[in-house]
Every structure is written in structure tokens, then in C-alpha cells.
Design goal:
Number of strands: 24
CATH superfamily of the largest domain: MutL, C-terminal domain, dimerisation subdomain
Number of domains: 3
Helix content: 25-40%
Shape: elongated
Number of helices: 16
Structural class: alpha+beta
Distance between the termini: 83 Å
Oligomer: single chain
Strand content: 15-25%
Length: 559
């Protein structure tokens, strides 16, 4: 028997519509910031409590809302930005559907206080679960304050699918940071649980970048700019030697709106092709302005995606501008100085690991095992030439050392805990606002890896202990720690230890270009022989090439 068709009640329709716009607390922040920018705000303050579930407050100094129109602002499809179909072809505002405040009011309690230019008194109004209250006089300077309380409290299922508070806070930080970069002539401040996380002063793109990304990163970025028919591009990207373990620091802002866009991503990554190491990502902020008729922003409920009428032209503009900027990049300066020596204090079981200490037993008879090798020498300061009883071996010293360190760590972990090193002089590391918010959640995993740290300011930590495998390359500690943070913050956490350890050993291992003496080469090969899987590094790449004695003889035509 057919199932009857029902007309959904209005309250259900409103919550379904709200769910398309308000996915998480950061969605509320995004919508309220866009409203403030459309109102001409020069200062925007965002305050968040309990990852946005308890409270989100956004205040601005914009034009405000006229007292007589305040109740309309909370109704669905009520907007001052479009009046007819023809207006959809020439949109110049960030918000336009008239759904933001109504959608928020459907899943939370809203308190709005606003004062329009030319009015003597402010007006306040409250809406809860879609029910709009009566406007009342209030006190406020010109502008608008929207306070959102109890987000998703009436929809427990939605709350259940939200991530850890630190993760939700990271999304909020990323949202505010992106709009602070896109609208760099507007001052932004973000407070999370009464702690100032981010602040800009509307002093231009370079100043915003220094305050958001840090001066050590911002000062290395390469500016880019280009223009085409109805298109204008600006922003910056990182030189080839400055890259990240994930693409979270790639930001695209189209007509001032933060978007996820495949066309722009493909253009950027194609520009870096054969420049970046595999699995690494650049730091990018692209501000693309397009004539309204070249862009459709109405293809996603939350306006997170756009569609171009000329995607090939957009791709070409971005790709060519990125390639041109990268061509101006100077290679990193080689510093011919000895590596700094760090002093370590013994931690008992975590005392410095000697390079030649016994590792895993040799698996004689295994397909992965190696015969004893005789070291012959080194070529290109990268490969070790060795002779075995059955032929010639060419060993990649970096890949081989990665395998050794990887299995050493796992063996120590199985025995109790990995070896750690205490630093007599702690290392301060600037992690940035997003990583700092994630640290409480990641602290147990970092401790399991061998890191011990403590807060040292809003965006900086002090490293007091590090995994012993990093002791031989102290210059790599900072980059290895940041890489570990990025790996632990990734979306797939089923095999977090292996994925993060692979990155750590890559930083800790002997590098291509390191000159080794014969004793060190012999030591490395002896350690490699004792590993369980000596023929591949933890990334899955081969550690060596092999030629049998017969193959060598054939090449010399001796057979």
C-alpha cells in the first residue's frame, strides 16, 4: 500500500532549512560576520564560549538596522539586498538570501541589539526556536550586536555529531582568520572563553598576514596579482621551501566570500607540480574578484561553493599568476655552520639511544631479510655502496635510517614507552592560534610520542622533552613537532601513531647530502640488517637497489 504524502509542519520545515545553512558553530560565526561586513563595519568583534554551543556574540560598528525593520530581520527570506530576479545577476553583497538570522533563530536563542545611523535609541529583540519577540528600546552605539545562545540545544542529534570542542574552536578561528585576510581593511578580534585568540587592525593585507600567520611565515610569502576580463586576483603564496603537511592553510576568497573551490585548488597545485615534495602543501591566500555576471554564488545553501561561467579563464589566471610568483622565489640560503648542540639530561629508561644498540632480531630466511653487507663507500653524499655475497647493493641512506628509527620506536613502545630526551634549555615554538586550540585534545597523543610541553603565551609552547629519535638532529625539532601536530589534527585517526611516526622519522633521519664516514656507514647497514623490513622505508619506498653478480657480469659482457 502506498505511503501517504504529508505536508511538513512549518517548524519542521524551518529546522530542515536551518540545517542547510547552520552546520556547526563556525557557520553561525560566518553568517554573522558576512552580515556585519555587508553593513559596512570597520570593526568586528567575535566572542565565543564553550566552542560556540553556550554563546556566540558578534558585534560591529556598521550601519545598524532601522527600529521599524528589526522584527523583519529575523524572518525567513527577508533581506534588503535583493528585490527581484534581476538583482540575482548583479550581487555585490556577501549575504542575500535573508536566511541567516532566521536559520540561526530556528536552532538557538537570538538576542539582537541594533542602532541605525540617525536614530537616538537602539532597539533590542529576542527570538527563540523561531518565535520572534516584541522589540524594545535599548542602549547601544551605532551598529549591531547579535548574541546566539544554546545552539542546537533543541536538536540533540545535531549536537551529537559535532566534533571535540577544540576542533569546533579551530573551525571558528579558521573562519575569522579567512575573513580578516579577505577584508584586511577591517579590524577583527576573536575571543574564545575570554581569551584573545586573534586580532587585526584593518591595516592592510601584509599586516593581517603577519598577525594571523606570524611574521616568520608572512615575511617569506610571495605576493601575486593579475587581472583579466572582469577578473582581478591578489594574495600571496609560499616559496617552494615553505610547505605544510596538510592543505589547511590554503584559503580561497571569491568576491570576499570564503569558499572551497576545485578550480582554484587545481590551478594552485598544478603551479606547484614538481616543485613541492610529495604529500606536502603550500600556504596560500587567494583573493579573487569577479564581475557579478561571471559568478554564480547560489549553488550551495551555505554559499561555500561557487560556479564560474568561464572556469578555464579563471584557472589560467590563477595558474599563470602563481607560476610567475614562484619564478621570483629565491632559493633558501645555505647556512654553512655546524648544527646547534642541545644538551640533554638522562631520563633513566629514556636515556640517549646509542646508534649501534641491538634492535629487532634478524629474520634469517625471511623474504625481507638482508645478508651481511660490506661497506664500499658513498656516492653523491646520498647513497651507500655495499657488497653482499650475492651481488651489489646501492642503499638510500635517508630511507634506510627512516626504517631503523621507525622500528626502534615501535620496539621501545612495545617494551614500555619510547625513549625521550629532556631539554636543559626548553625550546619555544610558535604554533599559531588554530594549533594552540587543539593542544589540550592532542596532549595525550603527543605525550605518547615523547613530547612534553607547556603553554608559553597564547600561540606559543615550550618544548621540555622530545622523542629520543630527534636527538641526533636538533635543528629539525621545531618542524617535526609542527608536522606531528598537523598529522594528529587530520581527519583520519584510525592509525594515528603510524602516520605521525612516519613523519617524525622523516625529520629525524640522516638526510640526502649528509657526508658519512665509513664507520657510520657500516653502523647504518648493520642496523638495517637487523630490522624486520629492511627493503622499504616506512613510506613504502625502496631503501636499496640490487644487482646480482650475474647481472653485473652481463653488463660487462663477461658472460
Amino acid at each position: 500500500m502506498p505511503v501517504p504524502i504529508n505536508i511538513l509542519p512549518p517548524e519542521v520545515v524551518e529546522k530542515i532549512a536551518a540545517g542547510e545553512v547552520i552546520e556547526r558553530p563556525a557557520s553561525v560565526v560566518k553568517e554573522l560576520i558576512e552580515n556585519a561586513l555587508d553593513a559596512g563595519a570597520r570593526r568586528i568583534e567575535v566572542r565565543v564560549r564553550a566552542a560556540g554551543l553556550a554563546e556566540i556574540t558578534v558585534s560591529d560598528d556598521g550601519t545598524g538596522i532601522s527600529a521599524g525593520e528589526v522584527p523583519l530581520a529575523l524572518k525567513r527570506h527577508a533581506t534588503s539586498k535583493i528585490h527581484g530576479l534581476e538583482d540575482l545577476q548583479s550581487l555585490s553583497t556577501l549575504g542575500f538570501r535573508g536566511e541567516a538570522l532566521a536559520a540561526i533563530a530556528a536552532v538557538a536563542t537570538i538576542s539582537l541589539v541594533t542602532r541605525a545611523r540617525g536614530e537616538d535609541v537602539a532597539t533590542s529583540i529576542t527570538a527563540e526556536n523561531g518565535n520572534i519577540g516584541i522589540p524594545e528600546p535599548a542602549s547601544r552605539d551605532y551598529g549591531t550586536t547579535v548574541r546566539v545562545m544554546g545552539l542546537f540545544s533543541a536538536i540533540p542529534a545535531r549536537r551529537k555529531f559535532l566534533r571535540h570542542p577544540a576542533t569546533e574552536n579551530k573551525h571558528i578561528v579558521a573562519t575569522v582568520a579567512a575573513y580578516a585576510l579577505a577584508h584586511h581593511n577591517v579590524g577583527f578580534s576573536l575571543w574564545i572563553d575570554d581569551r584573545l585568540i586573534l586580532q587585526t587592525y584593518g591595516a592592510g593585507l601584509q599586516d593581517a598576514a603577519r598577525r594571523i600567520l606570524g611574521p616568520e611565515v608572512a615575511d617569506e610569502l610571495l605576493p601575486l596579482s593579475a587581472a583579466g576580463e572582469g577578473m582581478e586576483l591578489s594574495g600571496f603564496l609560499s616559496p617552494p621551501h615553505l610547505h605544510r603537511a596538510s592543505g589547511r592553510e590554503i584559503e580561497f576568497l571569491v568576491n570576499g566570500r570564503r569558499v572551497e573551490d576545485r578550480v582554484l585548488l587545481r590551478a594552485v597545485m598544478d603551479a606547484y607540480r614538481a616543485i613541492l615534495p610529495a604529500g606536502r602543501y603550500p600556504i596560500v591566500v587567494l583573493l579573487l574578484g569577479l564581475r557579478a555576471d561571471l559568478l554564480d554564488v547560489n549553488v550551495h545553501p551555505a554559499k561555500a561553493q561557487v560556479r564560474y561561467s568561464c572556469p578555464d579563464a579563471v584557472y589560467g589566471l590563477v595558474y599563470n599568476a602563481a607560476r610567475q610568483a614562484l619564478s621570483r622565489a629565491s632559493p633558501p640560503k645555505a647556512e654553512f655552520r655546524p648544527q646547534p648542540r642541545l644538551e640533554f639530561q638522562s631520563l633513566g629508561a629514556g636515556a640517549p639511544v646509542q646508534a649501534g644498540m641491538p634492535l629487532l632480531p634478524r629474520a634469517d630466511g625471511s623474504l625481507h631479510s638482508l645478508p651481511p653487507l660490506r661497506t664500499v663507500g658513498q656516492i653523491h653524499s646520498t647513497y651507500i655502496v655495499a657488497e653482499g655475497p650475492d651481488g651489489l647493493y646501492l642503499v638510500d641512506q635517508h630511507a634506510a635510517h627512516e626504517r631503523i628509527l621507525y622500528e626502534r620506536f615501535l620496539r621501545e613502545r612495545e617494551a614500555g614507552s619510547p625513549a625521550r630526551q629532556a631539554l636543559l634549555a626548553p625550546i619555544p615554538i610558535r604554533v599559531g592560534a588554530q594549533r594552540a586550540l587543539a593542544l589540550p585534545e592532542l596532549a595525550p597523543k603527543l605525550a605518547e610520542l615523547g613530547f612534553a610541553l607547556e603553554p608559553f603565551g597564547p600561540e606559543t609552547v615550550l618544548l621540555r622533552e622530545v622523542p629520543a629519535l630527534l636527538a641526533e638532529r636538533p635543528a629539525a625539532i621545531e618542524e617535526a613537532f609542527l608536522d606531528a601536530l598537523d598529522a594528529l589534527s587530520g581527519p583520519q585517526q584510525e592509525h594515528w601513531l603510524e602516520r605521525t611516526l612516519v613523519r617524525l622519522v622523516c625529520h629525524a633521519a640522516i638526510r640526502a647530502g649528509d657526508v658519512l664516514d665509513l664507520p657510520r656507514m657500516r653502523q647504518l647497514l648493520e642496523e638495517l640488517e637487523r630490522t624486520e623490513k629492511p627493503r622499504t622505508c616506512p613510506h613504502g619506498r625502496p631503501t636499496m637497489l640490487y644487482w646480482s653478480a650475474d647481472q653485473v657480469q652481463l653488463q660487462f659482457r663477461r658472460r
